Every structure is written in C-alpha cells, then in structure tokens.
Amino acid sequence: MTTPSPGFDRRALMKAGLFGASAFALPPLLTACSPKSSDGNGGSSDGPIRVGVISPLSGAWTVYGKAHSAGFELAVQEINEAGGTLGREWELVIADSKTEPQIVTEQANRLVREEQVDFLAGTFSSAERNAAGPVATQADKLLLYPTFYEGQSQEFYPGVCNPNIFMFGPEPSEQVWPHMEYMVEKHGGKFFMIGSDYVWPRETNRLTKQKLEELGGSAVGEVYIPFNTPQYGSVISQIKRSGADVVFLSLTGSDTVNFRRQFAAAGMKDNFVVWTVDDEEAATSGIGPDATEGDYVSFDYFWSIDTPNNEKFRAKVKEQHPDVIMNTVGVAMYNAAHMTAMAIEEAGEVSTEGIRSALEGMTFDGAPQGSITMRAEDHQAVLPSYLVQAQPNWTGPDDMFKVVQSVDSVEPATAQCDNLPLSEA
Amino acid sequence: MERIISLGLEIGSATLILALVSMGLALIFGLVRVINMGHGAMLALGAYLAWTLTGNGVPFPLAVVLATVGVGLVGLVFEVLVIRHFYEHPFETLLISWGFYLVVTELIKIIWGSTLKNIRNPIPGTFSIGEAGIGRYEAVVCLVSLVLLLGTGFVLYRTSVGLKVRAMIQNREMALMLGVNAPRMYRSVFVAGAAMAGLAGALIAPMFSIEPDMGTLWLVRSFFAVIVGGLGAIVGGTLVGSALIGGGTVLFALVSKQVFAQTVVFALAVLALRFRPVGLLGRR
Amino acid sequence: MREATISTDVETRPPRQEMRQRLARWASAENLLAAILFVVLFYVPYLVAGYTVYILPQYMLFGVLAMTLCLLWGLGGMVSFGQGAFFAIGAYALGITLQRVETQASPWLGLLVALALGAAVAGVIGYFLFSADVRDAYFVLVTLAISTIVYVIANSQSDLTGGFNGMFIERVTFAVPGGVSLSMASDLAMYYTVFAFTLLAYLGFRLLQASSFGRVLVGIRENEDRTRALGYNTALYKTLAFAISGGVAALAGALYATDAGFVSPSLGGVLFSTSVVVWVAVGGRDYFVGGLIGAIAISMLSNKLNSLIPEFWQLLLGVLFVLVIVFFRRGLIGSLLLVPQYLRGRRG
Fold first, then answer.
1. Greater confidence, B35 or A340?
2. Which residues of B touch A289 (CB under 8 A)?
3. ipTM exceeding 0.90?
4. Could you give the 3-state DSSP secondary structure of residue A102?
5. Which residues of A touch C164 (CB under 8 A)?
6. A184: part of which helix (H) or strand (E)?
7. Mean pLDDT on C55-69
8. Which residue of B has its CA nearest to A235?
9. Is B216 an 8 Å CB contact of chain A?
10. For position A23, what pLDDT does the model report?
11. Cα-Cα-Cα-Cα dihedral of B84, B87, B90, B95, to 10°?
12. Contact criterion met (CB below 8 Å) for A396 and A414
C-alpha cells in the first residue's frame, strides 16, 4: 500500500494559498507605486469650451427634455457662429438623466471627471438639481439651472443656496404672486389647491396661501396626489363640494394630463376656473384643446408672447428645431448659455470664480422675453411674468395661449439661505 | 342624498374601469396560471393604435375595434413564437412576459416617440342627477365594461366553449382526458386576454394621458384586483377585486389623504392575500 | 480472533487523490471566475484614475444587491421584484440616522440601523406571507407592491426623507475606539471599503450556499412540499432567506447612500427593483458571481451608452432579457461557466 505523503499535498495547498495572496499583494510591492489618485485637472485653456448638458432625454419627463436641450443648442449655435467666446468655440457634451436623480449623480460626475467639462447646465426637476448640487460643489464647477422651481431654502443645500448654482427659471413669488390679485378679483378668493405630492407643489401652495390670505381669500381645499394616480373621481367630487372659485393646479407629469382630462369630461369646467403653474406648451399639447380651453397658465415666458426678441427667436426655433415645442425651460437654457458666454468674455477666462463674479448682477437684453437680470445676492433670475388663457380649439403653440396680463419684471422674494450673498458663502 | 348618488357613481366608475383594465389579465391568469406582466404594454399598444387610427380619420368606435384586433394579433404572434413553449414553467412565463413589456414599451417609444398624445373626448357632456354627475364618455365606458363582464360570463357559463374552459380551470387532467385540446385553448385564451387588454387601452385612451408607460400606472392595481378577487373566478372575481381595490381607494380617500388611501388599500390587499390566498371567490 | 475490519472508502482512497478532488472543487470554473473578478476589481485603481474609480463602488454595491436576489431566486426559487425597496430603506436609514444622531459612532450606528431595519421588514413581511404559504406569482406581486409602497412613502414623508427632492448624505468617516479613523471622502478609501464589503458579501453568500441552510433552500426551490414532508419548517427557512437578503440589501444601500451622496425615492421604486431582476436574469441567477457580474456589466454599459442610443440600448436590453430567459436559462455567466464542463465532457 502506498504511504500517503501528506507533505506534498499540504505543500500544494500552501502554494495555492501563497499564489492567491501574492496575486493581491505582489504587484504593488513590485511597482512600488500607489493607485492612481483621481486628480481633477481641469480643461485646457485653449481648444473648445466644453459644456456638460444634463437633459431628461428619456424617462418620465422626456416631453420637456427636447425643449430643454434644444434651447441650449440653439444658443450655442449662435455663439459659435459669432466666433465663439474669447475666440474659442463651444462644444456640448449631452448626458441623459433618464429623469432619475441617481443617474444625474452618475452623469454629472462623468461629465466633470471624464469629459472634463468647464461647467454644467441643465437637470430638469428639483430632485435632479439636488443630485447635481454636491458634484458642483465638490468639483467646483458651475451649474446653470433652468426650470421653474420652489425657491431656495437652506435645508436643501447644496441643491440650492449654492454659490455654484444659478437659477434661470422663476420661483413662486415670480410665477404666482403677480397674478393673484387679478384672479381673486375676477373669479373669487376661494382656491382649491391640488398638486403632486412633493416639495415643489407644497412650497408653491404654502407661498400662494400666504398671499391669498393677504388678499382676503382662503384655501378651501388642499390635496396632494402621489405620482402615477390614474383615477380622480373622488378628488373631483371633493372639488365639487368645496364651493371653490379657482382650482389651483400644481400637478405634473401624466397626473396633470389625467386629472385635467377627467376634470373636463366631468363637466367641471362650467363651474370652476382652472389655473395651472406647471402645464406649459408641451404638457398642454399633450392634454388636448378640449380639456384645456379657458384655463389659465402663468410663467415667465410663452411661445406666443409679443416682444421684438421673441419674434426673431421664434423664427430661429422654427428653422433649426421645427419639431420642438419651445417653452419656459428651453428659453431659460437659451438665456443661461448666452449670459454665461457674456460672463466669460467679461471675466477674460473660463474659470468658475471668474464666470460666477461676472454672472452676478448681469443683465441680458437678448432674452426672448425681453431684458432679464441675474440677481447677485442669491443667483436668482429676475424675470417678467405672464398670465395667459388657453384659447378654444387651439391647434398648436402658435394659437394656444392669449396673454391676459403681464408684468415686465418681478423682484423675487429673498431666498431663505443662511449665507447671503452667496458669493461670500 | 345627492352625496350618496355621487359617491355611488364614483365607486361604480372606479370599479368598472379597473375591471375593464383587469379583465384580460384575469382571463389569462385564471386559465393559464400566468401573470402576464406584458399586460400593461398591450394596454398601451391598444391606446396608441387607436390614436393613430383616429388621427387618420377613422371614426372612434371603428378605431377601437381595429385596435383590439391589432393587439390580439400581436398577442397571437407572441404566443406562437414564445409563450406556448413555457406554459409548464410559470416563473419563466412571468419573466418572459416582463421582457415583452420592456421590448414593446421601447418599440412604442421608437415608433411613436415619447411626446404626450391625446384623443379628443368622443362623447363630451355629462349625465347629471341633480348635483351628482358623470361624464358621458366615462359612463359609456363603464357600460362597455359591464357588457364585457356579462358577455364573458355568458360565454363561460352558458356555452360549450366556456364549459371546456371552466373544466380546464377546475380539473386539468380530467379535462384533457375528456378530449379538450389544451394548446388550442391556451392560445385562444391568451389571444383573447391580449385583445381585451387592447380594447381596454383603446377605450380609456381619451380619458388618460397616452404615453409609453401608461400601462405601468395600472399594473399593480389590476394585479391585485385579479388576485384579491380570486384565481379562476374570472368574472365575479374581477368585479369583486376591482370593487375592493378601486372602490376601496375612493372610500379611504374620503377620510384620509390620497397617499394613505392608496397605501392602505395595497396593505389590505396583501393582508387579504395572506389570509385567503386563493382570493375571495377563488378555489384552488 | 477475527478482526472485524470495515474498510471504508475514505480509508482505502489515497488521501492525495482526495485532496486533489477537493482542490478541483475549489478551483471550479465558478471560483476561478470569481477570483479573477476580484483581482481585477482590486487592481482597477492601479490602472485607471478618475471617474471609473468613482463609479465602480456604486456598481459593486448594485452587485451585492443582485447577489441578494441570487440568494432568494437562484437558491430559494423566489423571484422578488422588491429588492430595490430594501436598498432604499437602508440608504434612508443611514441618512436619517446621520441627521438625528450626531456622534462619532453615527456611521456605524447608521449601518446597524440599516441592516436591522432591512432584515426586520423583510423578516416580518416574509413570515407573514410564507406562514400562509403565499408563493410563486402571489409573492412576486407582493414584492412589487412593497416597491410601490416604499416609493410612495419616501416621496410623501418629506420631513423624514426629504421627499421627492431627495436627501443629502456626506461621505462618512468610520472611526474605531483608539483613534483610528477612515474617511470615505477619498475615492480610494471608498473604493476599497466597498471592495472589501463586496468580497465579504460574496464569501458570505457562498458559505451560506455550501451550508445545510443553503441546501435546504435549494430543496425548497426544487420541491417545497417534499422538503416540508421531510420535516423542515420551510416557512422559517424562506423567512430567514428573505430577512438575510433584505438586511444585506439594506446594508449595501446604506453604503451606496454615503458613496453617491444623494438618495431619492426612485431608488426604492418599481423601475430600479425590476432592473435588479434583469441583471440577475442576464448574469445568471444560479451563480452569485453571475449576479455580481450582471449588475456591474449592465450598469457600466448603460452608463457608457447613455447618450449614444438611449432607446435602442433599452430595447437591446429587453430583447437580451427575453433571449436569456428563453434560451440561456442559466444566464450568460451561467452558460459561460458550463463551457469548461462541456469541453471536458466532449474530450472524455
């Protein structure tokens, strides 16, 4: 009988173990170098100016994504045709946020670290902007944010109250307050508020209630709907019983479409006035003329407003992006690009610090809605405000809205940030 | 008094619309024991087909019929190519139908784009009983749903075809021994379920936003309606399940916030599942 | 007197051969692949810098999440469309703990809370369902409902979770008594911490698989009634499996929260949970390394192809998913791992 030689096999085992350990440990000892550290070397000082644009190209809010990126692209085209900025052309790197804040974090990091962009523009929803906030701070890059939102409150830092973020869209004191008196006088002070269940509608409603009470009105109902609710029968009954004059809408996405269509089908429009602060041209197109006729909308920009700049702007959009429905968000992106170009020229260099100082307090006369200013203190754009009404049987954005009243420039409420002015935060 | 009528109309409408959406699912689940995760995509496809047809001038009722047939055909192709090989493996079928959902939804995005679409309300106006009212089109859809339920019930309980189907549900071996052609029946049921989903999608299209993910809105609700109602009790189960889920949400929303109403209804459905796994009207 | 010699196989088989057989089992294709994967992951920061080092920890954590589904599905035969919900629960648990409890030990406490909460929720729901023998499609639907409920709650309880706008979480510092601390602010520190966690999770799951617990789970998957007839409390085993997967998923979620710095309700939603199923299906549900590679590879590809062809990539993924379920039941990695066996069989 062969005597087993455990020694051999134990050695084999030890060899395997040693090999395994060395696979992990040896090369570092050999190469005597450490893992590469991620050094964020910025872009070169010649060559194109690279901008990272984060748009919702797919996912729940794709409808807004087209105008979002098209607005920026149009501006960049104009900038490049005029010879670029400081003699350098602009180059866009577009990332799809898929309407998911997690993806925004991923993509913002990719744009900054891998694509080495000079600054970021876009994100659509507040959640997306908040996801990009930490990246803007860590990498010390600017973020130009275009969407209408709930205003700045320190608890959501670094998504807001962030020296590196500039807000080019309106907040409730600009979007809602200027028209409250008109609505209350014309239709009555009893508001039924219905919005999607998240911060933007809640904050907007809170601020609206504040103003409403000042005007002697009251909120006779306040309902928040979780996302993706298909049926609104019970809410509609609630509205019927409330005795409201105005239905104040801050629903978004498919919920606003479903609600407004069901609201109209239930014959509610005969007895109630609807005022929405979410549904611009793209959403309204989705809902259809029969369900939107006579409803009020308020934003800083509409496709059909009558300013000399807008006439030229519309012509350009029709030529370059004929199948895009341009709206407040797209225009904000357009303005952001142009104002940043001007800031770079003024600063003489492409640096976060330089652009920031130049942008603060800057006035841009080429905006489609007229002259706008970027308030230095809290990086909030000072914008006009329009109240429009949807026309019967509209066929497209050209004949969709008619301006009921407008304010050339609204001074926004002060941001609830701890450290103002932001540049010294 | 009017509040009661109003409430009754709401509950009735919520129930019947959910039942309409869930019927196709109930049929396939009842017989083939497969959760068709692609149901939502079939719904969306029905809506999009109806949209394209009405956009090209086809009168709405005809568009609905054509959309139903169209989705039925898609279901047929899918069944013949893929599903029929997997009836013995319910898990695989569940996943494959989920894959169907993913693929069809992306195809819809590619073919029709992601912009929101809508169909004009075909029957504007309302029926009113004093202060209580209901949109005319909504009422018609509820009526169609009722007719569909009754029709399916009739087929199942009064025709020989229905007899065979019920036999298969109750005792498969026996039914096979008695000569029921299982593959053909499964195919017919699957196609019928798909067609019903297409019908539901086309019918509800004017009431809801037409977008690629529209089916997902209904997914969990209709699943629960079918399961709580009961495995195998296709007509009664769907009705009862829809009443509980749809009507339940309406009732809870009376006394609490929407978010609680929806969460509580789901939680109750899970409870019901646990204590009566075959559903209220089902039998194993 | 006659000696009763009972020669057992173990005694007469030469120990050398036995050792060789044991070594062959250890050096199986699966273990080799896992070893290669971990060695490669270990060396990534040596070879590349910047974004890849930043993003891989997130994908590794997705990989751990996928492995929890492999435990449930591959071993136990229970498909869960709700793993994302536990991931989110863990992420929020860490975030809320850090907000409410401001001490040096908070990160550890947060991890503990995440683990406990995930395991507890999963355990309670699991026991509730399995004790009534809720299984198959019904179980799938309940997990779907869990995702929906977590998403809705995370969105609406904004005081607690920040709601739709999300919650910010800084890169924590893990401190041990004695003054030693490791700050996750450095990408490298984060990377290797997550790497260690992933490796430990993998080894843990593999040990579980090889243990009697794992074998009983497989028995339950194959034929639950028979396993029950053999005297095992199948409800308890399934509950334990669900609790373990929930707890580990929550732990992974907590680490993800501090890595990404931001948590939003969509992390717990249906979309993310169903992605986990796709990763595991495509990677291979029967092998933990399959789930791991599936999650990492698909996430990386999704990222790379992000702006190039968003719709077509999703379409491709959907088609791949169907193909994998229909033809490659064991997933791509699973099928890959069969190749050496197949070749050996051919040769022999």
1. A340
2. 120
3. no
4. helix
5. 125-127, 197-200
6. helix A177-187
7. 95
8. B253
9. yes
10. 61
11. -10
12. no
Q: pLDDT-based confidence at A1, cuts 50/70/90?
A: very low
User: Quick one: which H or E segment has residue A138?
Assistant: helix A126-138
Q: Rounded to the nearest 10 degrees, what angle do helices B182-204 and B160-170 cross at?
A: 110
Q: What is the tens place of the pLDDT at every residue in A109-157?
A: 889 988 899 999 999 988 889 889 989 998 999 999 999 999 998 888 8
Which chain C positions have a beta carbon within 8 Å of A40's beta carbon? 50
Q: Is C196 on the interface with B (CB under 8 A)?
A: no
d(CA A248, CA A351): 43
Name subunits touching C (3+ CB pairs < 8 A). A, B
Return d(Cα B34, Cα B220) in angstroms, integer.
15
Whether residue B120 lies within 8 A of chain A, CB to CB, comes out as yes
- Those residues whose C-beta lies under 8 Å from the C-beta of residue C187, and which sit 6 or more positions away, are A37, A38, C53, C54
pLDDT of residue A276: 95
Q: What is the pTM of this model?
A: 0.83
Percent of chain C with pLDDT over 90: 35
Q: How far is CA C63 from its chain centroid?
A: 6
Q: For residue A250, with 0-12 CB atoms within 10 Å meaning exposed, 13-18 middle and 19 or more buried, which class applies?
A: buried
- pLDDT digit string (tens) for A342-366? 999 999 989 899 999 999 999 999 9
Alpha-carbon span C94 to C105, nearest angstrom: 12
Mean pLDDT of all residues in C294-299: 92
Strand A49-55 versus strand A119-122 pairing type = parallel
Nearest CB among A28, A35, A198 relative to C165 is that of A198
Give dist(CA C336, CA B160) in Å, integer: 50
For residue A262, the distance in angstroms to the closest alpha carbon of chain B comes to 6
Residue type, B66: L
N residues, chain C: 348
The arrangement of strands across the sheet holding A119-122 comes to A90-96, A49-55, A119-122, A143-145, A165-167
| Phi and psi, residue A367, nearest 5° | -70, 145
* pLDDT of A402 over the 50 cut: yes
Mean pLDDT computed over every residue of chain A: 86
Answer for the pair B230, B236: CB distance below 8 angstroms, yes or no: yes
HSE-CB at B98 with a 13 A cutoff on CA atoms is 26
- Whose tokens are 């690279």? That residue is A50
Q: DSSP code of B206?
A: G
Which amino acid does the sequence have at B188? S
DSSP code at position A153: B
Q: Is A285 on the interface with C (CB under 8 A)?
A: no
- 3-class SS string, chain C: CCCCCCCCHHHHCCHHHHHHHHHHHHCCHHHHHHHHHHHHHHHHHHHCCCHHHHHHHHHHHHHHHHHHHHHHHHHCCCCCCCHHHHHHHHHHHHHHHHHHCCCCCHHHHHHHHHHHHHHHHHHHHHHHHHCCCCCHHHHHHHHHHHHHHHHHHHHHCHHHHCHHHCEECCCCEEEECCCEEEECCCHHHHHHHHHHHHHHHHHHHHHHHHCHHHHHHHHHHHCHHHHHHCCCCHHHHHHHHHHHHHHHHHHHHHHHHHHHCEECHHHHCHHHHHHHHHHHHHHCCCCHHHHHHHHHHHHHHHHHCCCCCHHHHHHHHHHHHHHHHHCCCCHHHHHHHHHHHHHHHHHC
B171: helix, coil or strand?
Answer: coil
Q: Which residues pair with A297 in a beta bridge?
A: A276, A388
Q: Which of B131, B207, B259 sits opposite A226 (nearest CB)?
A: B259
CB C322 within 8 A of CB B100: yes
Which residue in A225, A229, A266 is closest to B134 by CB distance?
Answer: A266
- Encode pLDDT of A28-87 as tens digits: 544 444 555 444 444 456 789 999 999 988 776 777 788 898 999 999 999 999 998 998
Residue B126: which of A225, A267, A287 has the nearest Cβ? A267
